[in-house]
Amino acid sequence: MSRISDMDELVVAQSTQLCLRTGCCHPSINWVLNDGSNYEPGTSPFDLPSIGGWIHEESTYFQRCILGAYPGCRKTRFVHHSGAPPTSLRMDGRRCCIIQTSPTSEFLSQNELSADIVAIHEKDNSCMTGSCCFTPYLRSLDGDGRYLGETRFVCDECVFVPKFVVLDKYGETKYLLRPDTCFLGVCMRPRCGGTNSGGKCLRLPFVVRDPITYQPCSSRVAGEAAQVTELWNGLVNEACYKRHAYQVAFPSNATIEEKFTLIGSSLLIDVSLFEKRDNDKQ
To answer: Taking CA 190 as the corner, what is the angle to CA 188 and CA 193, rounded to the nearest 5 degrees?
Structure first.
């Protein structure tokens, strides 16, 4: 966990190829953690500078198949490991249209699945985003099962602006994740450009904000507020492999527990918003 505590930003990148992910061809999704300061769009996540961390997903075949069109509703858990990604994880980029009946990728061994676990991000079945009951959430625990925090989708009067609250280890609201808005807060305002990592030609940052004042929290990344941002991942990754990548720029005063929870926030944003967007395009 100490490596994450020293990081000001990182990139959470999918290793799983999601081409032709439709019907019952819904494999679980694995991730690798990369250095956010050297991100290059279009690069394989395994060729980028690693910070020594990876994540595997555990979700039953029933959940992935039946709720494939509504991924934010499925029961799932993301297990976060320290250390370099196993060599077998490179199989993720060589498969498409896979019917995976086991909860985890079959090429990962039991030793790899249980090695160096530092955090678990998990959720039960929920409704989809836009619903005001049983909203999507992701609870973050450490490797020993201690509660670190939680990310929850927020339902309010601004239905066209998705937003999430982040709870700390005491269950108190610590941050609000919300894009910038325009037209009196009715519409989301995308951004172009960025100073410290690639992939920001057109982006929609979920800015980490004070939950009372809505003011952006500062980060130690020059020219950037704390945020979770989907990155342009290169033409091949976007159009063919359907891989996503997210920059997580941490608040300058974030604790180690809050950093792990914000990594979970990036996973929830992907599952509840962007994974569904891609599924709708299939």
So the answer is: 165
Distance CA 146, CA 160 (A): 35
Place of tokens 């249209």: 97
Taking the C-alpha atoms of residue 162 and residue 177, their distance in angstroms, rounded to an integer, is: 9
Tell me how far CA of residue 138 lies from CA of 135, 177, 188, 236, in angstroms. 10, 14, 23, 30
Calpha distance 278→116 (Å, rounded): 32
AA letter at 161: V
- CA Rg, the chain, in Å? 17
Check residue 89 and report its DSSP letter: G
3-state SS of 17-76 is: CCCCCCCCCCCCCCEEEEEHHHCCCCCCCCCCCEEEEEEEEECCHHHHHHCCCCHHHCCE
CA distances from 261 to 138, 177, 220 (A): 9, 12, 18
Label residue 239 by pLDDT band (50, 70, 90): confident
**How far is 153 from 264, CA to CA, in rounded Å?**
13
Closest listed residue to residue 4, CA positions, set 79, 82, 57, 56 = 82
Residue 58 token pair: 């555990």
| pLDDT one-digit tens code per residue, 117-153 | 999 999 999 998 877 889 999 999 999 999 999 999 9
Instruction: Compute CA distances 164 → 90, 256, 274, whole Å.
Output: 32, 20, 14
For residue 236, give the DSSP letter: I
Phi, psi of 237 (to 5 degrees): -65, -40
pTM of the entire predicted model: 0.91
β-sheet bridge partners, residue 150: 139, 167
Could you tell me the CA-to-CA distances from 18 to 32, 39, 68, 194, 265 in Å, in that order?
A: 15, 21, 12, 27, 21
